[in-house]
Amino acid sequence: MDCNKNESISAPLDRNQRWRETATILSKTRYMEFRNPYVSIAQQEEERGVFLEDAARARRGNWRESTFAASEQTPLDLEIGVGNGEFLAHHSALHPERCVLGIERKFKPLVQSLKRLQRAELENAAVLRYQADHLEDIFAPGELNNIYLFFPDPWPKTKHHKNRLVNDKFFKSTFTLQRPDSRFEIKTDNDEYFEWILQYAKNSQYEIEAQTTDLHQSAFNMANFMTQFERLWTEKGLKTKYLCLRKINS
Known about the structure:
Distance between the termini: 16 Å
Structural class: alpha/beta
CATH class of one domain: Alpha Beta
CATH topology of one domain: Rossmann fold
CATH superfamily of one domain: Vaccinia Virus protein VP39
Oligomer: single chain
């Protein structure tokens, strides 16, 4: 594997076009207060622990200082797809020395995660709403440390594979956004999607540090935090696949 190739993400001139594409997708659910009460809750809590699209873009390159009053040396981790915020709260509580962000598109898990953080009085964590396939819109190169992607939608039908989050472009983007020696941890219970992710990982600039097709029966399980969602499907007999990537070069 060539870990020294240096392929950049889309040029800044393309960013306005990406913003318009993202805005079109997000706006489909943004103003549904009557059908989705979580929209208005998120709007009321904006910039008090939750950041919607415009606020997220405005913090690009300055998340540590503007959101957490932290130094540039403070680690900044990202969870992609927060669910109900169980892992986000756990990770934030376990590592008070790190800043932690969770990104989510849907309003209900966004608000549920925010409330979980507020109940635990975790001031080193926040949530934001954005499309996860446009991370470069809201984070500058080298702004992130560890990234966590747990149980992303596998889009199992072949005609829907184009909707899968993980692809060459996604890994190029995350690699650029992470600082050297950062980790990217991924979990899924879908066999075919795990092989898909693994192939793209092998073709990326990341180094594969660990992998297993049965996390709970492996040595890596000692450090694993099992959420309610993971526990539910494990009890139904599904095995959790795990992949840990590391960014070696700068």
